[in-house]
Amino acid sequence: MLQGLKMSRDTLGSDLVAGVVNAVTSIPDALGSAVLAGLNPVHGLYAIMVGTPVGALTTGSAFMNVSITSAMALAVGEALAGYSGEEQAEALITLTVLVGLVALALGLLKLGTLTRFVSNAVMTGFLTGVAVLIILGQLGDLTVYDSDYSNKVLAAVDLILHPGQLAPASLAIGLLTIVLILVLDRTRVQSFSMVIAILVGSLLVYVLDLSSVAVVGDVSGIPRSIPIPRLPDLSLVPRLFGPACAVAIIGLVQGAGVGRSYANPDGNYPDPSRDFSGQGIANIATGFFQGMPVGGSLSSTAINVSAGAKTRWANALAGVFALVLVLLFAGLIEQVAMP
Length: 339
Prior knowledge:
Helix content: 55-70%
Strand order of the largest sheet: 1-2
Strand content: under 5%
């Protein structure tokens, strides 16, 4: 399973840049996803520290970023709704390991081949829908408008109907970041466009003292620690097996869509069954290190490719950089502007 791991000097520079970009952008997303699931944000960080590099080295896709997705976070939140405190942490560990075992079993049984019977039209519609939901899901952080609607489409319509309640400073910083990325993508520093845009936007918030603009530290303080391995609680398996299957299927379907969208460096598309197995191994490892379930992420994969990734080492390095950033620069990461 560990194939295509040779590191080349010709591609290392590009993979390093892509790894840094993905690490910087994934940390706020991991914190927010954990909060979305009703969990301690530290579990989101542990997921990208462990799950992303393990997934990078074991899946068939060279570019697919194995990370937390909003759909999986919502499903995890529902699965753990009846737990709290230390019991919730134990249930999360058990759930994540079960998700991994289910995905690994489906991969070993070669059931990834079933995705070949899904038409391109259906997959295109699925990925377009996911992309739209990703955009709509970010409007809250962009405008600081808290809609009463949980449905993302209704929340977006509600936002449009209340323009007077949008936060001008937050919206301006977010739009400036988007413009910077688009402009810098057409220059010689295109590989660094996302990092530069994030730094400039966050620096402006600090220099201009825009206290109304939320930063990562407002979501949660970042712990200066590494994940400690823990064993799952086997007594919880009967209660969590069903929810684990549901979470696993969500992640695998999203991963299948990503795999169909990005060919490997050799021009061939990855084996979906190997992607299933790789995501399973990533979740098993993540569960033992107290992380949330992970799966193929469309948005993070798009960032990975846009940042210039050349091999699977870009995603592997992203997890390493996330760990280094948390341990050494947690204070600075807390100042990254959410918009």
